[in-house]
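Reply to thread "Modeling small-molecule complexes from scratch"

Following up on the discussion above, here's a worked example others can learn from. I took a protein sequence and the SMILES for flavin mononucleotide and predicted the complex. Inputs first:
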Amino acid sequence: MCSTFGERLKISIFGESHSESIGVTIEGFPCGFPVDEEKLAAFMARRAPGRDEFSTPRKEADKVVFLSGLTDGATNGETIKAVIYNQNTKPKDYSSIADTPRPGHADYTAKMKYGEDYSVTGGGHFSGRLTAPLCIAGGICMQWLETKGITVGAHIASVHGVEDKRFDSVNISAEELNMLKEKDFCCIDDTAAEKMKDEIRKARKSLNSVGGTVECAVAGLPAGIGEHMFDGIENRISLITFGIPAVKGIEFGAGFAASDMYGSENNDEFYYDENGCVRTRTNNCGGILGGISNAMPVIFRVAFKPTPSIAQTQNTISFETKENTVINIGGRHDPCIVQRAVPCVEAAAAVAIADLMLKD
Ligand SMILES: Cc1cc2nc3c(=O)[nH]c(=O)nc-3n(C[C@H](O)[C@H](O)[C@H](O)COP(=O)(O)O)c2cc1C
């Protein structure tokens, strides 16, 4: 199984949670671009499991190995193929639940689509682990976008109702976005971060899990990127972002709140700034009009559901006996996905924007 995104820049992600390796092929990336592998490793580390008390204890180094596409560290115009060798697989953790689909997972639907033999071990190709190859592609795209003055960054906007400060949607600097990347639990407001951590600890103690939202910004994007109707920035970012497991919603700019505003409140009025650049005083449209960038920051928020694997006994069915039964899920799981999903959202945005830029 392979998951593909992109037109001019095409990424294909392959592998499973417990296969020997997972990886990505990237076609159409500009030739001669020097990939900073140290920077990429730092980006990968932000998503990697087992880093703190809030993520799954499954430890994976997530070291990226380039099999093709680079010569002396620079892209050579051929397909880039990069893999991560899984090191800490424990398929036995899943053998007892093969017959009983886990609530909130793709076990049931995958069997309906691919048949009885589909391996659900660790979620197979549906696992959150497959966001590691997404981050390889996204990390490289972020480096490329930076050379064009475009910075992608995100923060944990909420966990189980505890909210961080929002980005200032009119004035987001590359410095602010990059500073957030240095934080282990990346909120703008450190007090909110502590409250969120308490929520996660509380959930884990009660054998439960929590969800939340990630807010992402793309700063420095020039006006005129994106296409009409089906290939707008919102369309492309949404398509790739819903590829991140556990994503259940997305909103751009003022999003759903815009539906409660008057037109006079929601419209972002134009003006020339002191440098003669066209700007808007508000950014309710999230930097996108008609699917095309207007040079204000692109802003979107992504909703993540609570981690489906919880330590409580849950009701399910047995495929074999065709009876109702219960399930107790072993294995190793994040009590909250949101903090590890932050770089995944950045990666998704970077790939979508790079693809649109290369199309123009
Ligand atoms: C970075 C990341 C890590 C994840 N880790 C876990 C986990 O440890 N346990 C779990 O049950 N789900 C985890 N998930 C979510 C599941 O993979 C996902 O909910 C499941 O495959 C069903 O897909 P759906 O929620 O998109 O329908 C993770 C998701 C992401 C993005």
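What I'd highlight from this example: The first strand starts at residue 2 and ends at 5. Residues 338-359 form the longest helix (22 residues). Questions welcome below.
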